[in-house]
C-alpha cells in the first residue's frame, strides 16, 4: 500500500462519497417487473411519479438506510475502520433516518441538509425468488450534491477516497467527484471507484475509461461491468484490457468468487457460500468494505479480497444491504481458515 508524506495528518481510513438513499425492500414476482418495465437484476432511475406508482403497487416493504457507497462505508466501520461519508439528503423523515443510521455505526457524517424539495432519495429494491434484486431509484435530494459539499481538508485527512459510479449521472455531483479526486491526488491519497452498474458504465463509458486509466487507483466491478468498460466479449479479454490501467482492478463474480488484477498478475479468490442466499442486495458493496478495510491495514490484495468475500457472504444471507452479524469475527475466520488450509 502506498504511504503518503502526509501520513501523520490522516484521521480517517475511508471517506466515501455517494448517493444518500433509503432502501425500500420488498419481495416480488417477475411479472411485477415486466408490468413496470423494469429489467431484472439492474438499476433503473425513475422520476417522482413513477416512484409513487411503484410504492403503491409493491407488496409489504421494509425501509432501511442504503446507498451503495454508504453501505460500503457502514461495513468498513463495522469492521473497525475510521470512516466518514458525504452525501446529500433533505430535511425530512428519511433524511433523519439516513443520518442516524450512519452515525450510530460511528461514521462521521456532517453533510448539511439540502432544501425540503426534492425529498431524500429512495431506492425500491425488488427481490425475486432466486434472490436477484432489481432496483428502481428516485434520486431526489442526491442530485443537489455539488462541489460546495466537498471539504478538501476532509479528503486529505482520509487514507482512501471511495466513490460510486452512480454519482456520475447528476452533472453537479460529477463536478463534486472530480473536485474530490483532485483533492485526494494533491494529498497523495488513494482513490477507489465502484463502477456501480452496467447501464451506468454504458452511459459514461469513455469517462470511466479515462478515470480508470487516470486518477483511480482501485477499481471495483462485477463481471458484466468489466465487460462493459473494456468493450470486450470475454472475461479474459476484459482482464487483459484492465491489466496495467490502475494499481488494482477487482472483478467480483458472485458464486464464482473474485479476481484481483495487479502488477503481480491475476489472482482468483473463492467465494464464501452462506447457508442460504436470501438477497444479493449489497453484495458488491460489502465486498468493497472488506477489501478496503484490509487495504487500509496494509494487507496483501488477495487477503483483502478474502475479507471482502466474507463480508459479502454475510449480507446475502438476509434481507437488506447492511450486515447483521459480527463482521470482524467472520473476516478473521475467513483469513485464518485460508492461512491454515
* Strand composition percent: 15-25%
Low-confidence stretches: 1-6
Summarize the biggest pleated sheet.
Answer: 9 strands, mixed
Per DSSP E runs of 2 or more residues, the count of β-strands stands at 14
Question: What name goes with the CATH superfamily?
Answer: Ribokinase
Query: Could you name the CATH class?
Result: Alpha Beta
Give me the number of helical elements: 13
Distance between the amino and carboxyl termini: 26 Å
Order of strands, main sheet, comes to 6-5-1-9-10-11-12-13-14
Q: What count of structural domains?
A: 1
What integer is the average pLDDT? 92
Question: Could you say what the CATH topology is called?
Answer: UDP-N-acetylmuramoyl-L-alanine:D-glutamate ligase
The ordered string of helix (H) and strand (E) elements is EEHEHEHEHEEEHEHEHHEHHEEEHHH
Structural class based on helices, strands and sheet pairing? alpha/beta
- Rg from C-alpha positions? 19 Å
Helix content: 25-40%
| CATH architectural name | 3-Layer(aba) Sandwich
Shape: globular
Folded structure, characterized:
It is a single chain. With 341 residues, the protein is of the alpha/beta class. It has one domain: UDP-N-acetylmuramoyl-L-alanine:D-glutamate ligase (3-Layer(aba) Sandwich), CATH 3.40.1190. The chain is 39% helix and 21% strand. The chain is built from 13 helices and 14 strands. The strands form two sheets. It has a nine-stranded mixed β-sheet with strand order 6-5-1-9-10-11-12-13-14. Helix 3 packs across helix 11, helix 9 crosses helix 10 and helix 12 packs across helix 13. The two termini are 26 Å apart. The N terminus is likely disordered.
